[in-house]
Amino acid sequence: QVQLVESGGDSVQAGGSLRLSCAASGYTYSGVCLAWFRQAPGKEREAVGSIRTSDGRTTYIASVKGRFTISQDKAKNTLYLLMNSLKPEDSGMYYCAATSGTCYGTPMRSNAYGYWGRGTQVTVSS
Q: Which of 31, 42, 48, 103 has the smallest CB count inside 10 Å?
């Protein structure tokens, strides 16, 4: 059984930084794609970025490019999202997700991912 557990969410001032973690169990990252999604109240869920574990290729949405960085620690089966220069618009529930099998791209659509964590809350105050 694959389980994804996010942690690291917190309340932070605008301009601050935060690092989210996603610990995976019952799962190997080899060959799959991983992603971070977020959803604010009253807004649609959106992908923040994705990573192809085979070669580390990453993709980000324009609003976070240059501020957020996705990385992985294969030895620890952990995915990270480093968020710098946080803005109030970045607030929301953050989820990590994994494809069910081998991934050859870096999909940003939610239906490409078969496994999801329960989320961790990020609140950015102005």
A: 42
User: Euclidean distance between the first and final Cα of the chain, in Å?
Assistant: 40
CA–CA distances in Å: residue 45 to residues 18, 56, 58, 95: 20, 24, 19, 10
**Residue 49: exposure state from Cβ atoms within 10 A (0-12, 13-18, ≥19):** buried
Rounded Cα–Cα distance for residues 112 and 126 (Å): 34
Output the tens digit of pLDDT for each of the chain's 126 residues: 789 999 999 999 999 999 999 998 876 666 889 999 999 999 999 999 999 988 899 999 999 999 999 999 988 889 999 999 999 999 999 999 999 888 877 789 999 999 999 999 999 999
Q: Which amino acid is at 34?
A: L
